[in-house]
Recover the amino acids of this structure.
């Protein structure tokens, strides 16, 4: 590099000397400004001729540094293949509100379970009434499954009934143990833990599908849905342990397990059969649950009504609004995605 600079300076000096000679030795008479411009042009031309030519920059992922360019260099063609918001789905407000009906429906189911628990703890609901409700729920649930589930045959239904009978017998045997399970714990602590478990159950519940499926279907539940189901069962055991007799414990446990285990399955079958019937069933559940809560406590009725409005109307509108701020960038720098086109 030092030798090339010396050559450039040497050529510049020769140029200035030649100009002085051509002017008849009167170098001082030459316009000094013109001479300086000629010298600078000569130096610039020599530097351009002496510098190596840079190769064209190529957009490659693996190839190391390219000669003459920085490691983080990009040209105008780098962002030509950039795509923004390619996978963003435009959601319709009415469709989102219709999908939120399933959440409001299950909220009403859990609230009705809490109302039955309260009436049972207050001795407003007898053991015979609870057993009658259990039998009605069990028969109506099996009728709905038999009418709506196409994969459910009569043999599978009988096998299902045998499992339910075995489960009910085991529950009846364990009822005395459940009754004395929390005798050393105060009722306030039991109520606080039960409410917390129900909140966990609602928060982790899988509203897109049911945890329990009809026989013949191969669908594995998620981890969060299993935790949600276990939380509801533990809450049922805590409530049952505050009842005075083993018969009441058996009746309330059977009612709770029928609701938490089979109600999502029945509502899912109704939704698959007819969405209009699903909306009608949800509306009836909302009216019935609001009526029972209003009879139980006015403040709870107002809070539950606000919750239903928030879930069914405010949350869908909120979801649509925040979609405007979603900004997704895709380009050649993303990970490769395998796309299979399987044709017969």
């Amino acid at each position: 590099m030092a030798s090339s600079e010396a050559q450039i300076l040497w050529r510049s000096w020769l140029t200035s000397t030649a100009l002085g000679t051509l002017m008849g030795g009167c170098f001082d008479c030459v316009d000094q400004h013109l001479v300086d411009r000629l010298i600078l042009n000569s130096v610039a031309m020599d530097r351009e001729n002496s510098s190596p030519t840079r190769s064209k920059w190529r957009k490659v992922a693996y190839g190391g540094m390219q000669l003459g360019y920085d490691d983080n260099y990009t040209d105008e063609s780098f962002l030509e293949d950039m795509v923004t918001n390619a996978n963003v789905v435009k959601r319709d407000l009415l469709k989102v509100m219709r999908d939120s009906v399933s959440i409001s429906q299950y909220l009403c189911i859990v609230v009705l379970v809490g109302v039955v628990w309260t009436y049972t703890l207050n001795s407003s609901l007898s053991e015979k009434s609870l057993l009658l409700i259990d039998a009605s729920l069990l028969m109506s649930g099996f009728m709905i499954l038999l009418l709506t589930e196409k994969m459910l045959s009569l043999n599978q239904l009988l096998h299902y009934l045998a499992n339910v009978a075995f489960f009910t017998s085991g529950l009846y045997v364990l009822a005395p143990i459940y009754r004395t399970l929390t005798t050393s714990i105060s009722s306030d602590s039991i109520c606080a833990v039960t409410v917390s478990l129900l909140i966990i159950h609602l928060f982790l519940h899988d509203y897109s599908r049911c945890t329990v499926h009809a026989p013949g279907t191969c669908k594995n539940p998620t981890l969060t849905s299993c935790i949600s189901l276990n939380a509801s069962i533990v809450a049922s055991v805590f409530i049952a342990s505050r009842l005075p007799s083993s018969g009441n414990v058996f009746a309330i446990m059977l009612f709770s397990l029928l609701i938490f285990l089979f109600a999502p399955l029945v509502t899912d079958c109704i939704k698959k059969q007819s969405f209009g019937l699903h909306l009608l069933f949800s509306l009836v559940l909302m009216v019935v649950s609001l009526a029972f809560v209003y009879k139980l406590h006015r403040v709870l009725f107002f809070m539950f009504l606000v919750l239903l409005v928030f879930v069914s109307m405010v949350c869908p509108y909120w979801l649509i609004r925040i979609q405007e701020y979603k900004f997704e960038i895709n380009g050649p720098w993303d990970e490769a995605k395998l796309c299979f086109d399987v044709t017969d």
